[in-house]
Every structure is written in C-alpha cells, then in structure tokens.
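Give me structure tokens for this 130-residue protein.
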Amino acid sequence: MRSKGGRRNTIPLPIEVGRATAAYLRNGRAVSSSRRVFLRAKAPVRAFLGTSAVGSVVRHSLERAGIHATTKGAHQFRHGLATEMLGQGASLGEIGELLGHRHPQITKIYTKVDIKALRTLALPWSGGVR
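Here you go.
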C-alpha cells in the first residue's frame, strides 16, 4: 500500500478481506490479460488508469446506495479507519504511522469531537428546555 505521501507501507490483510479478494478473483473478476487485481467493470475491461478512479468508484457507489455523506471520495475510508482506531483505544502515533503521516499534528484532526453523534447519547435534562 502507498501512503498519501507516496511512501510504500506493508500492513497485514484481515482474513475477511483476503477471503473476499480470493472469491472475487475466482468468481467475480472479468477475464483479462491484465495482472492487476481490480479492473474496470465497464468496457473496455482493463486496469484503472489512475488513483482517481478509486474515488470515482466510491462516489458512484455511495450515490447508488443512497448514502448522503459530507465527503464522497475514498478519503472517507482513511478518516473512518482513523476514527474507529481512536475509538478502540489506538494512540495517535499508531494511527499516524498506519496512515503514513510524517508529523503527529496531522493525525490530531481525528480527535475532533463529533457533536452530532454526541447529541444522540445525551440524556434528557430534568430541568426542562433552556
């Protein structure tokens, strides 16, 4: 995997992801001479031409699923992973290392409080509305 900065990172592949990828290669991938794992679904069936294609796939998939997200690109997966890791107790250093951040202050953006999500957890105020 390459980080945003272009550095190459090696990370473990979760078992579920490995199984899903193997099933795709056996049953779902179009026949092609390309050595790339993932191919375009529309003709001509070939490898993606650039990294922006992933963002395009994500954007179209969100639209088809009726998901209205504030961001509609592949970056939201990075943010989602970092937020989940933070919620599970990972340190900012661990998150930054996985995401390929060179400076700890860049990783701090994931510590912002989600006020909207917190409102769903708030208990009713016994003193009434103020």
